[in-house]
Amino acid sequence: MTNAVFLSLGFGAAACFLQCAPASAADVAAGKAKAAGCAVCHGENGISRTPLVPSLAGEPDDFTQWQLVYFRSGTRKSEVMEPIAKPLDNDQIRNLGAYFASLPPPKPPDAPPDALALTGGKLAAQQRCSSCHGEDYAGIGPTARLAGQREDVLLKALRDFKSGARVGSGVASMADVVYGLSDSDMQALAHYMAAHP
Ligand code: HEC
Ligand code: HEC
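Predict the joint structure of the above. Result:
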């Protein structure tokens, strides 16, 4: 079974848990109100200016929802996010997902790629990152947007997948991806993705 098939089967069943249950439609305005408390760290309009805190603006709806579910259950470890996610109910998570997805994504400065970004771009093509993260690395469904994300956040995520500190979906897709990557490969990839429009 290929990775892609395995992934879609895994998420197909999992996505039903959030979406196939009779549920009220997401309320973006309620999500925005709830997100007021997130802005201290994640920034106004979901664009982070804080080291090691991800931007959330323009993340796929399902991605944000799933990460909040993983923090809530403790599947994804974070001393900061676990207590914040614990009290959220499914409706609040659905509204937050819809709100952040509605915001314009971070826009990196328009600059020609430097040598490290060129290396990162080659690696990204070889590793077919876009097969899961989508054209232009904008993210699809439960898979994160990478384009324009903070470089320190991207590098930490890759290192956490490599060390096993971050597990997430349990489908092991990212664990397989980082298995063959060196730390300098991950630095180049993070640099490339952060600068990608
Ligand atoms: C005190 C600071 C702080 C606050 C407040 C906060 N977060 Fe976070 N959040 C973080 C940090 C730090 C991480 C990165 C955790 C890691 O390194 O794995 C994170 C990660 C996330 C992620 C994962 C994003 C990704 O790209 O991996 C989501 C989703 C998220 N937070 C949503 C929220 C929401 C929704 C709120 C408000 C209800 C919120 N956060 C409030 C600090 C905060
Ligand atoms: C087989 C599908 C697949 C491929 C190929 C893939 N990814 Fe991922 N990636 C995922 C999924 C699914 C997630 C969300 C994982 C989770 O739930 O924690 C993810 C998450 C990430 C994250 C964390 C983002 C965040 O904000 O939390 C980074 C960084 C990342 N991938 C980088 C890459 C890079 C770089 C490549 C190519 C070298 C790549 N991925 C290839 C499926 C894939």
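The mean pLDDT is 89.
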